[in-house]
Amino acid sequence: MLKINDILGNWKVISEKPISGGGQSEIYLVKNIKNISNEESVLKLYKKQGQRRASYIERYNKEIKALKLLKNEENIIEIIDSHTGDKDDPNYYIVMEKAESFSKSKKREN
């Protein structure tokens, strides 16, 4: 689990705990340390226990590929950055734009 102010690549964690998560990943709010816009993004950190399995890495790569293929589609979150673990940083993560949530009633109106 990451902590507030932890750094992964160009991304600084700004949430005290994951804002969401599941069996394979945790979601954190982050800011780009090299960008002065102060815009928040979302970092999906894949849990370490599965990172050595071929099927895990394959799912990670498929998710990135799918997000990149659909990046110009309406209602699809845009991928900003990704990292495949290496010797300097073993973490697997995807950074995406932060979506503003809205209620089901607003979804029906659109």
UniProtKB/TrEMBL annotation:
Gene3D superfamilies: Transferase(Phosphotransferase) domain 1. Residues 13-110 form the Protein kinase domain. One of its GO terms (molecular function) is protein kinase activity. InterPro entries: Kinase-like_dom_sf (IPR011009), Prot_kinase_dom (IPR000719). This is Protein kinase domain-containing protein. It comes from marine sediment metagenome.
